[in-house]
């Protein structure tokens, strides 16, 4: 490293950055072919990295790298991945020989003449790439999933070339940091802090990480393990209110996983950082988990749903230490495996910490609506997809792998039994510890433990997209019920059958009967004592998957005798039938009003209120919404005041009231509450006030500037203030200001803090602004490829969701359809994302186009 440093201090480099075109067919990204060839010859990899971070954002980060590895074949040139401009590279030494910088198509080409069989050492002086460095004024953090390590430093950026890392950070003196390994040496000199970290465990490139900046540090010993948390929260009461439970939930998750897997925590350390406006809920970096700060630091009086979401998020990221970090997918087409294991295990892990919760209901409401939200669309994708290049790996992510896959996994567990399933998981982890595995590797292990044909079962569940539809038929002879048939249909016409197990519940007079149904064939006889379809709840246990028939009369006639899971699955089924055009629009809102007046379970309240909100804004005409609004607003406000003394329940109804209010009287009420008027038992946090101010700026356009300025002046948290300053132009009453702001988003630099951008898009495309904002749809779609290339993994999906989610006009449908028609060779993954995001638009336009009036419905 010293020799390389001396070379790079020369005023002019003797190396050429012009690539000699000896590289043949090198393509951008990391192709499957390249990854396969490197895996066959490269091993025993270590990265020694040093980053010197200047205090000024405008100054580049000087970096040094020593890469060592074993090579079994040096007959061909070797490619290092580096998705940056060639001028970032300042010098390369290969096995003590100075090398020409030969750079082409995001790759550094190392000449075979400089390589040798056995151990090789490559030293590189460069300026760090900042695409995924997330560099702010007072902090920074790496986020390198799925193939972004190559945007930071030259690497073999593929998941099945695991390596160890020795990291040194040279930072401003006031900064602190965590990384994959423990701190080995820390020194301070001349206003700078130098931190050397111990060699990390063996991990994939996407898991390399560090967080550095002005953070507060909290350390606790949990179950014999010391954990450190970094955060930037300025509200000390909020920190105190959340701190102990955050550490406890991590400790409980580790203990549960150790018992379930039979493997002790496998890495050197366990730390985590809470980051403002983080792109995801969390990211499972070994020894340095990153979280969205507001996902863990909850405001006062959190809802049951928020508490469960936090616990599930912590359990999910902790589960990744075993499922994803210890055993990693071989290629990113199996990225879903690490996510399904984490989500599936998280659903089990939160149970002990919340004994009062119906966890079957929680699993249902957390997974089914989101999974159906993709599987019902024209852009539905299978759980396991093909991937030819890692530069498209980010598009593998979505609701199918996070929500449908856990449903599939639960069906698999029921098929072979919990004990055998656990034994299979333990064998899988022990067999592939610190290496890589594929989905077929797990199926091979499980297949030996059961007589079931898991390969055939997996083919339809994992390798194909979509969901079945179920229909009941009451067969009568001479007026008497002879038999009941349950038929499973494949709406795609491919005659697939999804083998699955679920239950039905039926009523005859005052008697309720359960029946477990194993649907392995297209037609199943159901032995239940019912007289009509309205007497039965299909999928009563919430474990089946598909579009099930449902009857709204079941709600009003049987509600008091239904379990919470039966209620939940009924509402999920009813909503899916509504979106299929089979249920009344205004009638559905009336049913929700009836339900929320009776229901106490927060999970069910959140479910039906969310359904109501979408129907209200997307599936009613303006005249219908105007007619429905007064009584709906009165109902929500009344329930907020009177239904419960629990502040969290009041917050649920307040949020629903805030989201739908359009009448002058209740908009005035919202303004008064924002301006300080008290509602007994309702506590609004700074984040709540910011959200309310945003809604008011749109509903009271003539007062928008004053509202926004007053809110900005009152914000105490500096990170929250910066976020609000960014979003304010999108909330402006001035169309010109909003247009100028939207134009600014075409510059990738203005999209760097993605959560801010998404909040701003939500304001631009608010339902009350649809007519003036529809013009943003086409340029937003035209930006999508660039969004995918420059943004993080969830950004393209969220960009399209925020762009299309609130529209219901024929003109908006035409914009989307014409865009896809005019781009026949458009990226297949991004086309799927557009079709998924447009599903609500397509359905609402189709239903409203049927001219179903308020009187008819």
Based on CA inertia axes, which overall geometry fits? globular
Q: Major sheet, described briefly? A: 8 strands, mixed
State the distance separating the first and last CA atoms: 75 Å
Task: Supply the CATH superfamily name of the domain at 2-214.
Answer: tricorn interacting facor f3 domain
How helical, in percent, are the residues? 40-55%
Report the average pLDDT across residues.
93
**What is the CATH architecture annotation of the domain at 2-214?**
Sandwich
Radius of gyration over C-alpha positions, nearest whole angstrom? 28 Å
The side-by-side strand order for the widest beta sheet comes to 5-4-8-2-1-10-13-12
**Might you state the CATH topology name of the domain at 2-214?**
Immunoglobulin-like
What is the CATH first-level class name of the domain at 2-214? Mainly Beta
Helix segment tally? 31
- List unreliable stretches of 5+ residues: 1-23, 851-857
Explain this structure to me?
The chain has 857 residues and is of the alpha+beta class. Strands 5-4-8-2-1-10-13-12 form an 8-stranded mixed sheet. Strands 15-16-17-19-18 form a 5-stranded mixed sheet. Among the domains are: 2-214, tricorn interacting facor f3 domain (Immunoglobulin-like, Sandwich); 323-463, Neutral Protease, domain 2; 734-857. A hairpin with a 2-residue loop joins strand 12 (183-189) and strand 13 (192-197). Residues 1-23 and 851-857 have low confidence and may be disordered. Helix 4 crosses helix 6 and helix 22 packs parallel to helix 24 (754-764). Its cofactor is Zn(2+).
